[in-house]
Amino acid sequence: MTRVPPAADDxxxxxxxxxxxxxxxxxxxxxxxxxPDAFGRLVGRHRDRLWAVALRTLGD
Length: 60
Description:
Layout: H1 6-32, H2 38-45, H3 47-58
């Protein structure tokens, strides 16, 4: 197994986040423009986090 130096790993994570943010913005713009599937894809990308927030908010 090849170990990646922490600084390089951090840079990769930042790049992934930036790419994800750009993709989220594209999906949101597509939704606003009328794409019927864009919102579902956006929710699908974040479903685990959304589910956790819903459970925490509702209590069960």
